Amino acid sequence: MSQAQSFDASIPVLTEVLKAEPLGDDLLPGEAAGAPSTRAEMAARLEADAVDGWTDAEWAMLEHRLSERIMGKLQSRVDFVLEQRIKDSMAEVLTHALHGLTNEIRIGLHDTIEKIVARAVSQELTHLQAQKK
Q1: Is the Cβ–Cβ distance between 17 and 70 less than 8 Å?
Q2: Taking a C-beta distance cutoff of 8 angstroms, is the pair 46, 29 a contact?
Q3: Is the pTM here over 0.85, yes or no?
């Protein structure tokens, strides 16, 4: 199956779920008013300073917390889409099964009525022939 066929547009991608919030006009921590560096440079420096001394345990904790947060946001959407697709599939399957069952009942009822009528006619003819003799 190709990638294009398996893509469902109703399922959001990760970048749609976790949208970056734009920076406000507030000063960043450690940023002085009128500082010579740009906001982007200051933000990059603060980020680098913050993660430089992280231990493996802190990285693992961050990874775990991010995974949990992403899973929490995605799970409800996935559950909804999955439930909807199952309902749609089940409706189609049940409709098909109902048509098949209805057809089988119709054929069975037709055969049964045909046998009953043939038997009744045969019995009536036998009865008339017995009276004629």
Answers
A1: yes
A2: yes
A3: no
